[in-house]
Every structure is written in C-alpha cells, then in structure tokens.
Amino acid sequence: MPRLNINGRDLTVDVDPETPILWALRDTLGLTGTKFGCGAGLCGACTVHLDGQAVRSCITPVSAAQGRRITTVEQVTASEDRVGTAVHEAWVRHDVAQCGYCQSGQIMTATAFLKSLPAGQQPTAAEIDAAMAGNLCRCGTYARIRAAVADAARALA
Ligand code: FES
Ligand code: FES
Question: Is 138 in the pocket of ligand 1 (CB under 6 A)?
C-alpha cells in the first residue's frame, strides 16, 4: 500500500498506486476540501501542492507522490501557514467566493504563487492573472480573486 506524507503526517493509504490523489484524499482519507470539477486537468478545482508546487490532483496518481509532500487546503489555511493564512484572510476580506466550488483550488494556486515570489515582492495585476489563469471560475469571481491576491501580497510585505 502506498505511503504518503499528507499535511505533515506519514500515512499508509489503502488505494491502488495509480489512483488519482484527489480520490485518495476525498474518498479514502475524508479530506473533502479538495474539489472535483472536470476530472481532466482543465479547471484547477482539485489543486493541491506537491513539494510546494501547485498540481492537479485529479490527474496526478498517488504513485507520483511517494517520497514527496502533499499539502491540501485544510493545511494551507491552518494558522501555522503564514502565506496560506494571509491568502485565506484576504479571500474573506474581499468576499471572493460566490458558489465557492472553485475556491479551494484558487486559494491553493494563489498560495503557491505568493510563496514562489521573493520576500516582499508585490505582483502586478498581469502577473496575478498569469499565475491564476489555469483556475476557472464559472461564477466569474476573477476581479475579486485578483484583488485578494494583491491584498495578501501587501499583507505579507
Ligand atoms: S478537477 Fe482537476 S483540473 Fe478540474
Ligand atoms: S465561485 Fe462559483 S465556480 Fe468559482
């Protein structure tokens, strides 16, 4: 059975190694913060971090995560994650979510993006749009997402 490190815990997960990480998280471990949207790598709703990089868990098998760190939205929005907490708080301040379905994936991509920047760097609107371009929102919350990412970057500076 695959051994995975999820949110800082080493776990043995009773799934086939080719199972997408999304289903190991949701169905086997009960971590339902990670959402299923398209199942084909197209929408970003299922975004998690693998060694800090944003990846699509619906098309990434468990076998690709062995010996690496999986981080989910449950951990990123926990208080010990400074950047994730800043993003989460900015999301609340800007009332970003509408239906909410895409939002955990948006937060995961935004957090990976801000962590990738040199300390204190303020991203431009164009840089934010480019970083977030792979995460679709059928409710069209893009303007609030852009404002919240910029606000989180300011809060972290
Ligand atoms: S559910 Fe994974 S990219 Fe859409
Ligand atoms: S808030 Fe509804 S899909 Fe993004």
Answer: no
One domain for residues 105 and 148: yes
Pocket probe for ligand 2: among 43, 95, 102, 135, the residue whose CB has the most ligand atoms within 8 Å is 102
Which range of residues forms the domain containing residue 21? 3-75
36 ligand 1 Cβ < 6 A: yes
Residue where one domain finishes, among candidates 25, 52, 75: 75
- Please say which residue of 44, 75, 106 terminates a domain: 75
Exposed/middle/buried for 9, CB within 10 Å: 0-12, 13-18, 19+?
exposed
104-117 pLDDT, tens digit per residue, is 999 999 999 999 99
Map residue 80 onto helix, strand or coil. Answer: coil
Phi and psi, residue 15, nearest 5°: -140, 160
Q: What is the pTM of this model?
A: 0.96
Average pLDDT over residues 20-29: 97
Q: Are residues 83 and 149 in the same domain?
A: yes
The response to whether residue 97 sits with its C-beta less than 6 Å from ligand 2 reads: yes
Q: What is the DSSP letter of 17?
A: T
Dist. CA 103–CA 90, nearest whole Å = 13
77-100 pLDDT, tens digit per residue, is 887 899 999 999 999 999 999 999
